[in-house]
Amino acid sequence: MRHILLLPALLVFGMTASPVRAADIAVILSAEVDAYEKTLRGFAETVDHRIVAEYDMAGDFDRGQRILAEIRSEVKPDLILAVGIWALQVIVREPLDVPVVFAMVLNPPTIIGSEPRNITGASMNVPVDKSIQILEELGPEVRRIGVIYNPTTTGYLVKTAGEAAQERGLELVAREAASPKQAVQAVNALQTEGIDALWILPDETVLDPTVLEYALLSSYRYKVPLLGLSERQAEMGALLSVSFGSSQDIGRQAGELANAILEGGVTGPIPYTTARTLRVVVNLKAAEKLGVEIPESILAMADTVIR
């Protein structure tokens, strides 16, 4: 467990703190990995307040609970930064009277729940409207976008995506799946119903290797473009992928949220953010096999082109 301990913290009421002097921040890292270190770097260079304690959970939930107990009893910060899903899970189980900002978390509503909490943060999620925009730019023949989802994981995301697609005159064709076996069946159902593109959501059920492999094979069999959510999926054969582009910038977003909270004037909950720096990968080999011509508008935004 690594930690830095400096000056005593201020007492915080609700989601605000006194702006008289710099507030104190405690940090919990889910693990000491490069992406999380970059996130913390981005946070530190953005936040206008002091990081007085820094801890590494090392992926150990029990260790995380001990860390949180020490933070509450000894550090008593004005705000806690939770980097990664494990750190956030530890905090969610223990009600806190100080605000929490998370970073590098996927699908935060599934962890935080629907009850009001003094928690917000910077998620790894790609804005759904950006993914839909890219699919729309493939051409006028893309009108029905297929998605498979587990309601307990990405039900909230499908609702938002459906509204975003409708605004663009597109239709989101969604099929539920509670297990990888059901997800494979859903892939078949979507293809036989006539979709124009298949969009992989950040859903553990769909991200099962068996499901991903089947979805990619189905994409080629039916000549239906597949939009993935990682460069690895594009390398495996997806036509396109869109993912968050910078863990350091997600840290900056978390720092901006922390500043807004600690500098006062915040009334009510602050919505979590989605990634604002994106990474787009285009697979021209897949395009050739699918008989799809990638528009210049998509090639212009691509960070990597697989030839």
What do these coordinates show?
- The chain is an alpha/beta fold.
- It has 2 domains: 24-124 and 247-262, Rossmann fold (3-Layer(aba) Sandwich); 128-244 and 278-306, Response regulator (Rossmann fold, 3-Layer(aba) Sandwich).
- Helix content is 43%, strand content 20%.
- It contains 12 helices and 12 strands.
- The strands form 2 sheets. Strands 7-6-8-9-10-11-12 form a 7-stranded mixed beta sheet, with helices on both faces. It has a 5-stranded parallel beta sheet with strand order 2-1-3-4-5, sandwiched between helices.
- Strand 6, helix 6 and strand 7 (171-176) form a beta-alpha-beta unit.
- Helix 1 (34-46) packs parallel to helix 10, helix 2 (61-75) packs across helix 3 (85-93) and helix 7 (180-193) packs parallel to helix 8.
- It is elongated, with a radius of gyration of 21 Å.
In short:
The chain is an alpha/beta fold and 307 residues long. The protein folds into 2 domains: 24-124 and 247-262, Rossmann fold, CATH 3.40.50.2300; 128-244 and 278-306, Response regulator (Rossmann fold). The chain is built from 12 helices and 12 strands.
List keywords for this structure.
seven-stranded mixed β-sheet; Rossmann fold; single chain; 2 domains; alpha/beta; disordered N terminus; about 300 residues; elongated
Summed up, the domain count is: 2
The major beta sheet can be summarized as:
7 strands, mixed
What's the N-to-C terminus distance? 45 Å
By CATH, the architecture of the largest domain is named 3-Layer(aba) Sandwich
Secondary-structure element series: EHEHEHEHEHEHEHEHEHEHEHHE
User: How big is the Rg?
Assistant: 21 Å
How many strands?
12
The number of helical segments is 12
The parts where pLDDT drops under 50 for at least 5 residues are 1-20
